[in-house]
Structures are given as C-alpha cells and as structure tokens.
Amino acid sequence: MNQTTKFLIDIVKRASELITDDFEVNAKGNDGDLVTNFDYEIEKFIIGEINKAYPNYDIISEEFNTDGKLTENCFVIDPIDGTITFAHGCPDWAIQVACIKGGETVSAVIFLPKLGELYWADETGAFLNGKPVKVNTLPVHKCLFEVHGKGRLSALTRMLPYSKHFRRSGSAAVSFAFVAAGRFGGVIFRNESVWDYVPGMFIAKQAGAFLINEYECHIAANSKDFAELLKREAIFKNGDK
What we know:
By secondary structure, the chain is an alpha+beta fold. It is 32% helix and 29% strand. The protein is built from seven helices and 13 strands. The chain has helices spanning 3-16, 37-53, 83-87, 152-159, 172-180, 194-206, 224-234; strands spanning 25-28, 33-36, 58-61, 74-81, 94-101, 104-112, 117-122, 125-128, 131-132, 145-149, 186-190, 210-214, 217-221. A seven-stranded mixed sheet has the order 3-4-5-6-7-8-9, sandwiched between helices. Strands 10-11-13-12 form a four-stranded mixed sheet, with helices on both faces. It has a two-stranded antiparallel ribbon with strand order 1-2. The radius of gyration is 17 Å and the shape is globular.
C-alpha cells in the first residue's frame, strides 16, 4: 500500500464519522435528485485534508468543484455516492476518492460504512477489508450486471436475450466495487460525472476487470466479451427513454 492510499483510507474513514442519523435532505435540481447536509460536510472535510497534504493538486468533486476537468495531478471526490439511497435508509451507498498523478489514476478508495466494507486499490492490486479481490469468471448469462444512466429501461430490454440478472444498487461506486469483488459481472455508467466512475473503475481494473472508457460509456466487466456486449447493447441510443 502506497502513502497516498494510506492517506485516502484515513480521511475517508474519518469523514464517515461525521455522519449521524440526524440529517437534512433537500432537492437538488428538478429531476428528483437529492442532497443532504452530509454531502457538503464530508466533501468540505476531505477537501480541507487534501489541501493540507497535497496543496499543489487540483480537486474535482460533486458539490463544490463540479466544473473541474481531470488534470495531470488531481483528486476526485464523491462525498456520498448514492445520496437518494442514503436518504432512504438503505445501506448501499459509499464515500469515494481517487488520486491521479501524472495523468494516471494511482490510488482509489471506496468505503461503504453501513456495510463495513472498505475497498482500495493501487499498484499492489485491489483489496476488500485488507484481502485481495478479483473479478469473477462467470459467463454473461450467469452474471449479475447493472446499468447506470439515462435510457436504462431501453438498455435492459436490449440486454434480455443475454442475461436477465439485472440488479439496481443506486450507487455507481457500489456497482464498480461489486465488480471488483466478483459479485457483479459487469457495469456500465453512462454519464460524464467523473466523481461517479473514476475511483470505481480503477479498483475494478486492479481486480482484473476489462475496461471501456469512452464518452458516456464507462464500463468495467469480467471479460472483454461482456464489456463489448454492454457497449453494444446498453450504451445510450437515440430514442431511449
């Protein structure tokens, strides 16, 4: 484990201690999205710690730095990935952070506090609660998979001939982590909010996943064939609803 990974694990665990059962929920935009006070408080805390330890790095984050683009040296933060899930008392949400150095992701952490699961990855591999993880080797028709983003129902309809085992976690971080742990066979995230997919794709990659990383097509799967199938059938297409 490198020093950056140790730093990320420490701040993510400390950030999770800010969360209590007493929180405020507000609408975010006009599409039914939500935000809580802990989204803001956690992000402020993590940004503050990064600025102290890595003052020359840029920060891209969901609540306060949404207009930022990935740079050569930066941190990517999602304080609560799956806020709607969190706000409804479900456990499958996560705090996630990744570090990019020299244009490459070198470290990432995803923490699921309510499930007690800490995923992290760096050049040494991918780990869950300190134990190495690997993607599964199941064929597509036996795999659980997930589609995130617009036009989900149309994409799922196109996937039915190949697999009927769709699951809905409500958090891209959880989905990518589950690919790394061998629980899901594949996931596609169809949006350009980098804080949602950068940490999880790196952890999945270090666990052996095959990646496709294109505009509105961010995929991690247990095989090249599954990844290309998701790209062909589950990518957003004109007319999708």
